[in-house]
Here is the input.
Amino acid sequence: MIRMKGTDVVVCCGMRGSGKSHFMRSVVKNTPRYVLWDPMREHGSLGMKVESLDQLRVAMRLNQKIVFQGRTRSQEEFEDVAALVYKAGGFFLFVDEADQVMPSRKIGPRAKEFIDLGRHRNVGMFCVTRRIADLDKAPVAQVNHLFVFRTIMPQDLEYLRGFIGDDAFKAKDLSGFRFLHFDGGHVVEHEKI
Here is the structure.
């Protein structure tokens, strides 16, 4: 059984169709308070849908399960969402397509503060990305749980190798929503959840 805390930083990576979104939805369903950044508008059934920062402010007072489907889906809009969640405290922030709003070497200051200091505000973050090498290093450097679904790009495999060693190359052969889980100590291969 995989146990995550509400202050953890989690990264989930893998190719399209490998099981990342299915896995994230199963985690979301077991999370009591969250905001889900949903730029592709695929997860609206998982909570109260909001489209603006004003709606998010109100929703965070009224609801514990919120899906943010913003108007611009920009890095600036994400920074504002991250700041609101950080300030409120007690929420878990799920970030679908995380590499789009926290790209390599271009993470915004609010997202960085959230990742680095979020545990002091009782907030955590779950980042979902197809290409881990395109995600800024901040979430990976602070990661409590790394979930790796099927990954075949050499750049991504080498990047993962820096964190989990040669076990990274097992990601090429994963299928059927199987994944690797690294919790900072060791790597375990899991069946579909």
Summary: Residues 9-147 form a domain with the Rossmann fold fold (CATH 3.40.50.300). The chain has a mean pLDDT of 95. The two ends are 10 Å apart (CA to CA). Residues 75-88 form the longest helix (14 residues).
